[in-house]
Amino acid sequence: MCSSELSVPTSAHVDVARTLVRTARMLDRVDSGLTLPQYRLLTLLDAGDERSTALAERLAVSKPAISTAVEVLACLGHVRRRSDDGDRRASWLQITDAGREALGRADRAYAERLAEVTGRMDDPSAFVSCFAAFASALDTDLSERRAGRRTPQPPAYRPPAPEGARTA
Questions:
Q1: SS3 string of the chain?
Q2: CATH class of 11-120
Q3: Domain segments of the chain as ranges
Q4: For 11-32, how does the pLDDT look when each residue is reduced to its tens digit (9 = 90+)?
Q5: 36-88 confidence digits (pLDDT tens)
Q6: How far apart are the first and last CA of the chain?
Q7: Neighbours of 136 (CB within 10 A)
Q8: Inter-axis angle of helices 36-46 and 97-118, nearest 10
Q9: What is the C-alpha to C-alpha distance for residues 134 and 148, in angstroms, rounded to an integer?
Q10: What values do phi and psi take at 83, rounded to 5?
Q11: Which residue, 7, 78, 109, 137, could crosslink 99 as a Cys pair with Cβ 3.0–4.6 Å?
């Protein structure tokens, strides 16, 4: 079971952040057929059609960056554009069957790599359970931020002063 004692930033949070960055780098090296940005984009489109401007916002990238990514995915046959009847300047994006197949291959490749690592743990199911709880909290946080209901932020983490250092 996951501990609920770490609601204020600690050095453990720094360790988790660094591990998540290392994990992203590990997954980036997996031969999944997609880059991580392409994977993120297809994952969002798999949940439903989306306007490119909304995707750029959700992925926290610029509109030109999303346009470039979409162009590559469209050339690969993974994404289809369709015009917005109400706004000629906008277009809707949808994942194609080929895109779903590519996403499925990437899902399997990433899951296999993660299983290799979690297989080295004493209790991989506890990790998966805690990470599922983290994913749920992340989804809640994102929904609240989108709705403008930002949750109060805990105080910033400050590492302990080295021994013998003067504190103000």
A1: CCCCCCCCCCHHHHHHHHHHHHHHHHHHCCCCCCCHHHHHHHHHHHCCCEEHHHHHHHHCCCHHHHHHHHHHHHHCCCEEEEEECCEEEEEEEEECHHHHHHHHHHHHHHHHHHHHHHCCCCCHHHHHHHHHHHHHHHHHHHHHHHCCCCCCCCCCCCCCCCCCCCCC
A2: mainly alpha
A3: 11-120
A4: 888 999 999 999 999 999 999 9
A5: 989 999 999 999 888 888 888 888 888 888 889 999 999 999 999 887 777 77
A6: 39
A7: 10
A8: 120
A9: 21
A10: -75, 155
A11: 78
| Token representation of residue 62 | 């610029």
Place of tokens 């805990």: 154
Residue 55 is which amino acid?
Answer: L
